[in-house]
Design goal:
Order of helices and strands of chain A: EHHEHEEEHEHEEE
Radius of gyration of chain A: 16 Å
CATH class of chain A: Alpha Beta
CATH architecture of chain A: 3-Layer(aba) Sandwich
Strand content of chain A: 25-35%
Strand order of the largest sheet of chain A: 4-5-3-2-6-1-7-9-8
Largest sheet of chain A: 9 strands, mixed
Oligomer: homodimer
Shape of chain A: globular
Helix content of chain A: 10-25%
Structural class of chain A: alpha/beta
Chain lengths: ~210, ~210
């Protein structure tokens, strides 16, 4: 049965899944790139970037798994871009250039409706203004037999965890402290929501934890 | 030069260093023992308990280091026992029985003065009612050329981190989520306080991080 998964979600040792002060210059917030330091050297990431080489160990295996098997994606508005409030024009088409890494229907949560954007490589951005459950229904329908990925950011992942919609969450715990940023765990009782760590693996540059809902 | 260290401090993936509802029955709070699951099978812990055998890998090395080289310890009142408020009698002498694992002067933070207690094996509990800086001064003097360990609990460690008194902190990050409990990181900006992860090692049952103050 298709699942709803969070995957490759990177978190600092002190629980931040993005740095503070996201901006055009800092898509992951200040110092946010440090929590992804495990991912950048992998063959999976380098291939996505059109580069040769890369590591092929545990980090790469988890990195590859975090992008495979998905028929649709859900992103929060801030993960799509730095613009807040109404769309002033249609110019912004995401952080990723003309050919985003999704290659599937991708549902962007927003309070401000906008026409879909067809990108190269199979990614179509759909803007969903009637709530997270509607976005999930649409993503499930679009994904068919494949999984739905909740891509982020932190607020979006937390909302789907809180309604029990996430079947599996892969966290890459990075050996770094950020001190400030978007806190993943604060006030979120994962145990009460039914989640437990069911797999743990030491990667080369992060510890990978897989949480499943019991 | 002698250092002030936090060591072997166990934290869940979601940042809890003790479970909720500490009591006589649950010294580490409910489910708190799960974050120490890396420690119990080690040769170091088993030897402390008078038992033979035990693992001798990375977890054991960090476990051993977390109890070596200290000339004095500082504990919060709750780490010493479950009693709150004034001492109603002198019966409670810590969680550890007649021969506690400290074997050195051990300074217990409290608002309620009490005479020192001489235990077997070199541990003497001193009760300090005039603040954390006084306790640190006394512990440093008692430790001489050896390090001072801030033993816990969470509130005590946070207070010493906030005043920049901790030179090094070894965290054992356990692959478990508690959902509730004593949060180590919430509202504590370790980066702003000068801390960074300077060593990371995959143990058999936990990831060991060493933070040092720059």
């Amino acid at each position: 049965m298709p699942q709803v998964r969070v995957a490759g979600f990177s978190v600092s040792a002190d629980g931040y899944a993005a740095g503070p002060e996201q901006s055009l210059e800092h898509p992951l917030g200040k110092r946010g790139h440090e929590i992804f330091a495990w991912y950048f050297p992998t063959k999976t990431f380098r291939t996505m970037q059109g580069q040769a080489g890369g590591t092929e160990g545990v980090d790469d295996q988890y990195g590859a798994r975090s992008m495979q098997g998905f028929g649709a994606f859900i992103l929060g508005r801030n993960m799509f871009g730095p613009i807040r409030g109404p769309w002033t024009n249609e110019d912004w088409k995401g952080w990723w250039g003309g050919n985003p890494p999704y290659h599937a229907p991708t549902f962007v949560l927003t309070n401000h409706p906008r026409d879909p954007i067809v990108m190269e490589g199979g990614t179509v951005f759909h803007f969903v203004a009637d709530g997270i459950r509607s976005a999930l229904d649409q993503a499930r329908a679009a994904a068919g037999d494949l999984d739905v990925k909740i891509g982020g950011g932190v607020a979006t992942v937390r909302q789907y965890l809180e309604i029990g919609a996430v079947d599996e969450m892969h966290l890459a715990m990075s050996p770094v402290v950020l001190g400030r940023g978007e806190a993943l765990f604060a006030g979120l009782d994962l145990s009460a929501l039914g989640y437990a760590v069911t797999r743990s693996a030491a990667g080369e540059r992060a510890t990978h934890l897989v949480l499943t809902r019991q």
